[in-house]
Write a structure and sequence with these properties.
Keywords: Heme, Iron, Metal-binding, Monooxygenase, Oxidoreductase. Helices cover 49% and strands 9% of the residues. With 415 residues, it is an alpha+beta fold. A hairpin with a 4-residue loop joins strand 2 and strand 3. The longest helix has 32 residues. The protein binds protoporphyrin IX containing FE.
């Protein structure tokens, strides 16, 4: 009998860890579960099998032809369809080519050069939050800080002019919202606007390249460079891979620090190294990408221990669960940044950024954003407090991303 899994259940979204721990404790490298939509999938919840599956080419990233490919019969559906061609949806050799070109633009130097811009954007958002707290008493830290910061940073990466940033933020917010949460047609309209905007942006960068990272990709028209469709898919991928994940990292780290005042005090006293440890431990403890994208077996795969996954099966590697595997992380459910602090016994590397060929291309940028965002926020608001019971905070539904949907905060000093 397959285990039933309902990712839409709010209790599961808030705390899926007991469910995953039960699957992992059963000892098999993968467990077949029944999803609430009537389909079945294989879940990998252990640390070692997760890394094995993610480096095994028999687990393909190419989505089946029919699944998730909208018919291109409306502008909004065409826009969504563009996403299908990105590198996360491809295997070697296509993937290797796309990845090589993107990595050539995403150099550590280019990412590090973003620091002053990220510091400026962070400072502005924190100042706005401080002002809103003074007038409104409470703000939602997701809406006011954790969401806009990564979107604005992707704006920097893509070289979106400052005058267009508010549009980028509004469209991204809409395409990331459930269709029934907004006025009818708003989500489709946002998809269409983003598609038109990115198409024009590519054209503009081609005629007048800037010193942004995306211009470097557009400029590379040598043989094997990206064609326009691939550039469009890349722009969408960078936006979606970069904002929701980083948003969850910042929101979850803030929540963990607000609920662990001793760790917050240690971070304030410990400087950059301790803040980096907070980021690493948040990535492990509250992995922003709960699962990788779906994999599909290209053939029958024997994972050992009697677990045989048939060909053409859907497989999900649950990074959040692998990062809580007690065999690799002692006291896995405890939030202990100290395990990543300098001088600590070397912990196992977490898999929050994935593993193998598709390892996150933006990990350096995500770490840089967190390294700036968290100390800036807590320095400007020393008396920041949660304005809700953490046990009742709503979480984003689904198996892909994980983080609080809202994080109401106030100032304990009431100023
Ligand atoms: C905390 C923030 C982030 C987390 C936890 C995260 C996590 C991940 C993970 C787990 C994967 C692999 C998915 C899979 O194997 O199915 C991935 C891939 C990717 N990420 Fe990130 N990511 C973050 C931020 C970013 C940022 C800021 C960018 C860029 C702006 C980015 C760009 C990408 C790209 C392009 C890929 C695809 C790589 C490939 O297919 O070879 N990510 N990310």
């Amino acid at each position: 009998m397959a285990d039933l899994l309902n990712p839409a259940d709010p209790d599961f979204a808030r705390d899926p860890f007991p469910y995953y721990a039960r699957l992992r404790a059963a000892g098999a490298p993968a467990a077949r579960v029944a999803l609430a939509n009537g389909t079945h999938a294989w879940l990998v919840t252990g640390y070692r099998p997760a890394r094995e599956v993610l480096s095994d080419p028999r687990f393909s990233n190419v989505p089946p032809r029919s699944a998730g490919r909208p018919k291109a019969d409306s502008p909004a559906q065409r826009a969504r369809g563009c996403l299908a061609r990105h590198m996360l949806n491809s295997d070697a050799p296509d993937h290797s080519r796309l990845r090589r070109l993107a990595a050539a633009a995403f150099t550590p130097r280019r990412v590090d050069e973003l620091r002053p811009r990220i510091e400026k954007l962070t400072g502005e958002l924190v100042a706005e939050a401080v002002a809103r707290l003074a007038t409104e008493g409470t703000v939602d830290l997701v809406d006011a800080f954790a969401f806009p910061l990564p979107v604005l940073v992707i704006g920097e990466v893509l070289g979106v002019p400052e005058a267009d940033r508010a549009d980028l933020r509004a469209w991204t917010y809409r395409v990331g919202s459930p269709a029934d949460a907004l006025e009818p047609g708003a989500v489709d309209e946002a998809w269409t606007s983003l598609h038109a905007y990115f198409t024009a942006l590519i054209d503009r960068k081609r005629r007048a390249p800037g010193d942004d990272l995306f211009s470097a990709l557009v400029r590379d028209t040598s043989e094997g460079g990206l064609d326009d469709g691939e550039l469009l898919a890349m722009a969408f991928l960078l936006l979606f891979a970069g904002y929701e994940t980083t948003m969850n990292l910042i929101a979850s780290a803030a929540l963990l620090l607000l609920t662990h005042p001793g760790e917050l005090a240690a971070a304030r006293e410990g400087g950059a190294g301790r803040w980096a440890a907070v980021t690493e431990e948040t990535l492990r403890h509250a992995s922003p990408l709960e699962g990788t994208t779906w994999r599909r077996t290209t053939e029958r795969v024997d994972l050992g221990g009697g677990t045989v996954i048939p060909a053409d099966a859907s497989v999900l590697v649950v990074l959040a669960a692998a990062n809580r595997d007690p065999e690799h992380f002692p006291a896995p459910d405890a939030f202990r940044p100290g395990r990543y602090a300098a001088g600590a016994a070397r912990p196992a590397p977490h898999v929050a950024f994935g593993h193998g060929a598709h390892f996150c291309l933006g990990s350096r940028l995500a770490r840089l954003e967190a390294a700036i965002a968290l100390p800036t926020l807590f320095a400007a608001l020393p008396a920041l407090r949660l304005a809700a019971d953490p046990a009742t905070l709503p979480y984003r539904p689904g198996l892909l991303v994980r983080g609080p949907a809202r994080l109401p905060v106030c100032r304990a000093d009431g100023v």
